[in-house]
Amino acid sequence: MSQNQPSNTSHTPTNPAWQASQYVKFEDERTRPVRDLVAAIPELPGRDAGRVVDIGCGPGNSTEVLAARYAQAQVLGLDSSQDMVDAARKRLPQFQFDVADIGAWKDGPFDVILANAVLQWLPDHETLYPRLVACLAPGGSLAVQTPDNLDEPAHRLMREVAADPRWADTLKGTERTARHGAAFYYPMLRALCSRVDIWRTTYYHPLAGGAPAVVEWFKGSALRPFLTKLDDASREAFLARYTEEIAKAYPALPDGTVLLPFPRLFVVATR
């Protein structure tokens, strides 16, 4: 899940560094898409998987799903965050987990490369995806899931709150994640692969606790680049303002639950 984001050594409650403990607060909800993704990977032609890798493995929840599908394979997990890798090693000590820069990574051949909610942090998808395909064995698959929610209220409000004069200069240009649609990925991958499967799903996550629960969700992912750049006082003020706006955009149900729509784009490209 984490890749090439600046670290922060603050120990305040709103510490924006990649943290396994923050990410797994919503582990069930975050793991459901990877289950759907891994289930869609086609069988290997005439053989069992020998090597599979989870790039951007986070705390190991996605690796666990991958390993369950390919029980006889050699399993590797990679992440840019030492905290995430430490959590994954503790969770799944039978597998190898390493700190790595996915933006420069090249290895193989692998029968499956899983990239769950990580490639959106990296630029130059027109060269990144072909490089990953080149790391596949014949008949192997690249399985990718990326959030497709930049137009959702939660992201729009991040940009609007970031424009507040109190911190606008500091946060200018912060939300720069790479997102493209099916029309971008399909022709590029079809030229390199025998089969390309692309779909988009919107998950509706019921979060108990109203607007603060939505904020907690995004503190583990999309809010990080904003919070990283702010000092403690500005960070607290930013989160207070953002929470107010989220409460308006995502009104709680009578029992206090907020229903968070979350669109995601899936790609399975088989070499």
From TrEMBL:
Pfam families: Methyltransf_25. One of its GO terms (biological process) is methylation. The keyword Methyltransferase applies. SUPFAM superfamilies: S-adenosyl-L-methionine-dependent methyltransferases. Residues 1-20 are annotated as: Disordered. The keyword Methyltransferase applies. Keywords: Methyltransferase, Transferase. Residues 52-140 form the Methyltransferase domain. GO terms for molecular function: trans-aconitate 2-methyltransferase activity. InterPro entries: Methyltransf_25, SAM-dependent_MTases_sf, Trans_acon_MeTrfase_C. Signal peptide: none annotated. PANTHER family: TRANS-ACONITATE 2-METHYLTRANSFERASE (PTHR43861:SF1), TRANS-ACONITATE 2-METHYLTRANSFERASE-RELATED (PTHR43861). This is Trans-aconitate 2-methyltransferase.
